[in-house]
Records
---
Amino acid sequence: MKYLSALAGMLLSVSVLAGTLEEGYQAVRSGELEQGFAILSELAQTGDADAQFGLAILYKEGWGTEKDLKTAFDYYLQSANQGHPGGMFEAGWAYQSGEGVERDYSLAVQWYEKAASAGHPAAMYALGGLYYNGMGVEKDTDKGTDWFNKSAQAGYQPAIQYLNQIRQ
């Protein structure tokens, strides 16, 4: 359910949506998953990064379609390659977790860096963790802490909570 909330939140942050894209997201929000899946699928095939990102979530969760982590990853990657910050973050997460793709921490770092540079607070936090623990990069606790701080400054609650814990 957290992805449905994330999808709805993403929609609120996008000021101008094509009518059919909005219809696809509205169908998903209202529980008409098959209809939303059909609309987003059609738009994703035209190269719409927002539709690709939404479709990836549907595949990841199995909403309106069979759950398919590999296909979800492919759509996240398509949106990421077009500069979609959420797609970049999810590509990083997939490489970090091995969800739908072979685990590769160095590729996770690359995608998180792109998403963080685009202002994605969760990517900043994830990147901090990889630097802090030396996963996919040379261990650098200062750089890790810098990324945690940037994430917290962007208002990301897990980063704020983590920094509060380590400062006690």
---
Amino acid sequence: MASVLGMLEERETAARVRVEGLRDEVARLAGVLEVAEIELDRRVIAREELVEALAASAAETTASTEAEAERKTVPSPAPVPGSIVPPWREGLPVTVLALDYQRILSVLDERQPAGQGPMKAKEITAKLGLQATSAKVEGVRSKARRLAERGWLMQEASGMFSAGRRPVAVPGTAPSA
């Protein structure tokens, strides 16, 4: 007959094996979740890029003089999530940007009067109150790059971002003299 202590030790060993198996499964699922989050963010960015490309293509078919006349007479529409980032120009309000882009600009604009230097995308992500997962950081980095490409921000060679506005050349338009 098996002793009571021996039976308890067998049950403890079985429970320990089950706990270790569950820990391994949780670690595996955490890895799968992280990969899925990264894929989701990449697909969101791809959709945004496609929307921008389609909008740019549609804009090329319209005469630039008609578009310029409309821009001067029609107030800027309210931003829509996933909307394109227009090139910065003098007098264009920040409110034409989607809220995510406005928040990134405000984080960097707050640093400028204090004389603080440029920020990495990871720091911006933390200032926005987001978890610093690679997926979130890449999403913020993508948005900050888009703002820099359109003249809303400055991007350093090191990949860091700082406040600052500059006009950018818009394809398909003649330079103003």
---
Amino acid sequence: MSGAPVKDANEMFSRAAFVAMVNNTDDHMRNHGLLRTGNGWRLSPSFDVNPMPSGVSDTPMVPGGSLYDRDVRDLLDYTDVFRLTREQAIQRLQRVADGISHWREDALSLGVDHDLLGYMGRAFDSENADRVSSLAVAPPVVDLAGPLARDVQR
């Protein structure tokens, strides 16, 4: 059992989104480790993530999910498993998409040859970025018939 189950479950959501958004085709449970800490077992730092310009994973992102179209929006059906609200999950998807959005600049700053960007773009520039940008966090709901409204009416 995790020493911080909510944090670790939240992190697993972000990792699932990330590996799908960079087309990591070598995604399986052995790529998720645990470390023993003074407060119990914790999710280890991420490892063995390899963006691939082509190919498909042998592991669906969600139970019964497609291997050929790993749509990150499918994760939203499992927010309770990751101990997130839908709004929190969408915000995490948006942060992951934002982090990936400047991959070209990051790669060039690390010395990657400019000619490789077109090839690797197929891994990073997937439909999932557009899918995430189409998601919106629900605006807060104000209950005009709630206790505050009744106080104002008096």
---
Amino acid sequence: MTQISETDLILNPDGSVYHLNLKPEDISDTIITVGDPERVEKITNRFDHVDFKTQHREFVTHRGSYKGKKLTVMSTGMGTDNIEIFLNELDALVNVDLATRTIKEHKTSLNIIRVGTSGSMQLDIPVGSLLASEIAVGFDTLMCYYDLAQTPEEEAISKSIQATTGLPFAPYAVAGSQLLKEKLAFDMLHGHTATCPGFYGPQGRTLRARNKSPKFMDVLNQFRQGDFRLSNFEMETAGYYALGRLLGHEVLSLSAILANRVTHEFANNPGEIVDDLIQKVLDRV
């Protein structure tokens, strides 16, 4: 078996993976993820008990039990660059023998559920909605570095968005887990998510720095490919879906819609909307 080098898979002196600071026994097979480290405890405060906690940088991990279900809650920070670190090291915990640095013959597929916040880019997706991302489109360049297989539909969406926006690269389009969507999001809105590589310029916001494409959100709002349209935007989902496919994990992104860029409305009760999403996930997972 080929051994993974010490520079490709970096381990801490205690044998934990480098950034997450975790060992295989520290996680369960179902992982709930959030961007904000402070939101981890907001979720695990509802657990029956928490039997493991650790933190390294923005990666906070709590493992415990909710109504008899073994769950792990982890924070990732923002952006697909963080998701790339998170998913590769999480996969290594279950599919690489860390002692021998070899890939295991029998693979483990994790259930990974992102519980996040998002903004709507369509008039008919109101503030306060809970939305499951069916397909995510990555406007970052992360997948330029990976050999991602896309379906013909996904490739067509990617090429059409590139042609419409004039971007110098084709955004990648990837579907999430149908299995998790049916289990967790049967009564939520379903949409297609734009994953942006930043919060300000890439999402059409302008403060003092001049925006090269100030109408970018308008272009995405109006984009159509048959019945396909973009419904909301955030900063992680496409990275989750692409790496989930590459590594063989079931991944679903769920978002509390806190803003609508068409009506310029922001929720006056964002905590309640997020709490509603958290409770639904815990009860259904």
